[in-house]
Amino acid sequence: MAWPGLNTPIIKNNQVQVIHKKDVDPEREEMLRKVREDWDKRRKRITAPEDRGWTSKSWGGRGLGPPDPIPGENFEGFESKVLHVRRVFNMTAKVGRKRSISALVAVGNKQGAIGYAYGKAPDMMAALRKAKNKAANHLVYIEKYKDDTLFHDVESTFRRTRIRMKTQNKGYGLRCHRVLIEICKLAGIKDLYARIYGSKNPVNVIPAFFNGLLEQETHQQIADRTKMHVVEFRDECGPLPIVVASPKGGAIQESLGTDWDKELPLEWKEERPRPKPSPFAREGILTF
């Protein structure tokens, strides 16, 4: 069976028709280019997870990149995170209601160096940039145990905020407020449990957390202050303790004389509730 155009040629006016390529229409190509650009503008932009922040509409948790370089320092390896942004209004006699942006930004290199600062400006980006560069000039170093967690439990207070921080084993992760998680990531802390009591305003939470990090003592500092050996119990050694620090010079005391204050007891909110017995459980049946 013959199909013109498929297995047999097309004949018109006793002439075999040949396929010809249509000439390029410049107007049509220009119209298609404009249509593609219009669709690209309407297409939803995909933002990287580290740049989205805590929510899609707030600035909290977004990264701003490294601080601006200064003479003698490029801040290579540093990152910055927005922790808190608020809009402040001031009533003036000449201008009237004047708006300004107040931003709180933290900067760190994930190796112990970290700082935070406030920035205030009429524009959002100007306030964030001012806070980021100011935080780079107020860096402090945080001591870490095995580059993962704190040396001991710490409790700090700032105004109406109280934070209890507990050291954890490797692999535990960060279980605390989202503001504290961002600070721990910038400082290089990987395993920590922290609970906030009282006001959870970031303006109070951040100074309280920094005070607690700076108040901790290393094992060597504890040994020199108490004139006693500091030991640690590890799973691989069973019930045998391991000496991690010894006092430098001087006699060693036999008793501490005061209670050990580097391990915080659990409060009632931190204790795990006991599972209630099932009314359908009876002897000989295993319940999970």
Could you describe the 3D structure shown?
- The chain has 288 residues and is of the alpha+beta class.
- It is built from 6 helices and 12 strands.
- A 4-stranded antiparallel beta sheet has the order 3-4-5-6. A 4-stranded mixed beta sheet has the order 7-8-10-9.
- A hairpin with a 2-residue loop joins β7 and β8 (161-167).
- The radius of gyration is 32 Å and the shape is elongated.
- The chain starts with 10 loop residues before the first strand and ends in a 43-residue tail after the last strand.
Backbone shape = elongated
Q: How large a portion of the residues is in β-strands, by DSSP E?
A: 15-25%
Rounded to the nearest angstrom, the radius of gyration is 32 Å
Largest sheet: 4 strands, antiparallel
SSE pattern, N- to C-terminal: EEHHEEEHEEEEHEHHEE
Low-pLDDT ranges: none
What value does the average pLDDT take?
A: 84
Query: Helical segment tally?
Result: 6
Strand order of the largest sheet: 3-4-5-6
Helix content: 10-25%
The strand count comes to 12
Distance between the termini: 74 Å
Structural class: alpha+beta
